[in-house]
Amino acid sequence: MAILALVVILMTLLIVLIGAGFSKNEADEKLKKEKGKRKSYYREKTKEKSLRKGYFDDFNIETEISHIKRENKEWSKDFAYSNELFEIGNREETLGNLEEAVKAYNGMIDFCINSRHLGYNNYARSINRLIVIYRKQKKYRSEIEIIKLALRNDMNEKSKKKYTERLKKAELLLTKTT
Fold first, then answer.
1. d(CA 55, CA 68)
2. Closest listed residue to residue 122, CA positions, set 143, 108, 134
3. Which of 50, 51, 63, 172 shows its CA 20 to 30 Å from the CA of 77?
4. 51 Cβ partners below 8 Å, 6+ apart?
């Protein structure tokens, strides 16, 4: 609404200036000056409102920065712990201790799901490893559960297609064994 009013005022001013005998260039120059005054006026008013609300207050900026640093530190701790669980699972899988690997991978998934800092992308690799392990162990029900967990998350179409195909194969294998 304010922009429309500004346009109307500027157009009226242009008509008045041209009607008062100013050349087109002189009128344009005066119009630019008036427009600049209006912009700085609105900028100042916006800044005053923001200062009243405390948006540009140094205290609020420092508080926000310390909050972001604290959140970043918490995320780093959670990420390091989840990564450690994955490494344990990977090591156990390499050594052939599949049950211990499954515990570590499931621990990582549970931790990431319950963490407010970590998301699906942080535990997707554990899901992939569990799918492989469950297929090797012929634990098709567990494999299906993990694939369904993966499909509940937001992912790109290529990944969704891959998991959907794996789910169909696992369900087919489950029906063959029962």
1. 16
2. 108
3. 63
4. 57
